[in-house]
Amino acid sequence: MIYLEVKLPDIPGSLIELIKPISKNGGNIHGILHHHDKKINNTIPVDIWFELSEELIEISLENIKKELIEKNIQLTKISVGSKNKILTFILTGHVFDTDITNTIKRLDSKNIKVLELHAKFTEVNEISSVLMKVEFPEVMTKFELIDEIEKICEEKNLFLIRS
């Protein structure tokens, strides 16, 4: 897994310009986190996770870096190989009514990145279910992660289903 942290110019189409070189060089994108709330000097931080073929990883990654620099996309961090762990869980209750964005931001503040989010709901005032796949640092135990999620669930009166 490859993790890139970049700063994108806040102009229409810049996210597509980030994705194009990755796709062109055989990258399979696993997740994108676009931090519009952290905009500074007309740039937006973006985290992106993707895979590249092992046999072409060095060449492909160099090509991607070169193309991003040419597109005025500032690279702030590149990590190859995952030092993080992944957990998938489901939240049920009034997940949207209790502000799903706030939940994601709180996880992010603990360096827990939401890689996937799948939701099922009918009406805003009815119970919904959200499946989340998160990546958390190697230094954090699964129990510490679950503790963080349970704190949020307790405050927001949500029910946690985990494997």
Overview of this protein structure:
The chain has 163 residues and is of the alpha+beta class. The protein folds into 2 domains: 2-80, Alpha-Beta Plaits (2-Layer Sandwich), CATH 3.30.70.260; 84-162, ACT domain (Alpha-Beta Plaits). Helix content is 31%, strand content 39%. The protein is built from 4 helices and 8 strands. The protein has helices spanning 14-24, 57-70, 100-109, 142-156; strands spanning 2-9, 28-34, 43-51, 74-80, 84-93, 113-120, 128-137, 159-162. The protein has a 4-stranded antiparallel sheet, covered by helices on one side. Strands 6-7-5-8 form a 4-stranded antiparallel sheet, with helices on one face. A hairpin with a 7-residue loop joins strand 6 and strand 7 (128-137). Helix 1 (14-24) runs antiparallel to helix 2. The two termini are 23 Å apart.
How would you describe this structure in keywords?
single chain; alpha+beta; Alpha-Beta Plaits; 4-stranded antiparallel sheet
Mean pLDDT across residues? 88
Question: What is the CATH superfamily classification of the largest domain?
Answer: ACT domain
Q: Which strand order does the major sheet show?
A: 2-3-1-4
Give the termini separation. 23 Å
Helix content: 25-40%
**Which value, in Å, is the CA radius of gyration?**
17 Å
List the secondary-structure elements in sequence, H or E.
Answer: EHEEHEEHEEHE
The count of DSSP E runs of length 2 or more, i.e. the number of strands, is: 8
Low-confidence stretches: none
CATH fold annotation of the largest domain = Alpha-Beta Plaits
Q: What is the top-level CATH class of the largest domain? A: Alpha Beta
